[in-house]
Amino acid sequence: MTKPLTKDDYRADDVTVHRDPQRLTRVVKALRSAGRNIALVPTMGALHAGHRQLIREAQVMQNTVVVVSIFVNPLQFGPNEDLAKYPRQFEDDLGICREERVGLVFAPSVEDMYPDGSGGARVTVHPGPLGDELEGASRPGHFAGVLTVVSKLFNIVQPTYAVFGQKDYQQLQLIHRMARDLNFPLDVVGVPTVREHDGLALSSRNAYLTPEQRQQAVTLSAALTAGAHVSSQGADAVLKAAHGVLAQEPGIELDYLELRGTDLGPAPENGDARLLVAARVGSTRLIDNIAVLLGKGDE
């Protein structure tokens, strides 16, 4: 049963939903003054099992109140991307938050987040050179939009911890850098990718896939796994194995397949690295990545 609290906030059973950024800031300040930690889980809604895992990771942190933000951020969508059709299922999202015992949900409007009326921010956060590589090369301006909204959420929620999935690995690395370089007083926590039984990384965009495309999409995780399996043989073997798997599925339109260091710099000859892939399956663009250990261990 939904009961209004104010014109900006309301109670949905045992979940309090805040619309107004200033009111939420006052609430979390009061919680921190009472000795509670705040764990922020930023989302764009369309919550799934991967988001549930982020929430559960946040809940095990000591003395923590979990805040889930639900906001489809227009600033991170390009002119030809899927902002208008991005899945929005707010009542279902609230149901998941209720099941996961989330204390606070922050669900602002675009006008709440970008009040100058333009639907965007006049001042944005520049991601630096990494923001123009990989995803940034295919989606110009995307990471400026991501970092701008995340910085706003950090200022509004003032969390002790901010929890993100490793599926968006480049995003996670850039948020780590922003938090460090701009001196946000919080810990950024990365949570391993949650996958379907056949290896497909969970994503809100999976809902766009037809049954046939859903089967084709598994090729992405299969290619990453094949590359990781031969990582002891070095970088060339990793990329050859992964490309070999991708080539077997004509329904995959590859954007990039790259092997990088864990900080997304050049991959080392030996040691920890990251294999990343982006591709279109039909009209749906999917990304995935996997950790690899180069030049060590058994085949």
From TrEMBL:
* Binding of ATP, residues: 44-51, 165-168, 194, 202-205
Q: In which pathway does it act?
A: Cofactor biosynthesis; (R)-pantothenate biosynthesis; (R)-pantothenate from (R)-pantoate and beta-alanine: step 1/1
Q: Which GO terms describe its molecular function?
A: ATP binding; pantoate-beta-alanine ligase activity
Which residue spans adopt a coiled-coil conformation according to this UniProt entry? none
Determine the domain of life of the protein's source.
Bacteria
List locations, semicolon-separated.
Cytoplasm
Please provide the record's keywords in A-Z order.
Answer: ATP-binding, Cytoplasm, Ligase, Nucleotide-binding, Pantothenate biosynthesis
EC number(s) on file = 6.3.2.1
Q: Which reaction does it catalyse?
A: (R)-pantoate + beta-alanine + ATP = (R)-pantothenate + AMP + diphosphate + H(+)
What are the binding positions for beta-alanine in this chain? Q76
* Alphabetical GO biological process terms: pantothenate biosynthetic process
Matches recorded under CDD domains: PanC
Q: Where are the transmembrane segments?
A: none
Q: Which GO terms describe its cellular component?
A: cytosol
Which PANTHER family does this one have? CYTIDYLATE KINASE/PANTOATE-BETA-ALANINE LIGASE, PANTOATE--BETA-ALANINE LIGASE
Quaternary structure annotation from Swiss-Prot or TrEMBL: Homodimer.
Give the miscellaneous note. The reaction proceeds by a bi uni uni bi ping pong mechanism.
Per the record, the similarity remark reads: Belongs to the pantothenate synthetase family.
Q: What the protein does? A: Catalyzes the condensation of pantoate with beta-alanine in an ATP-dependent reaction via a pantoyl-adenylate intermediate.
Query: What's the name of the protein?
Result: Pantothenate synthetase
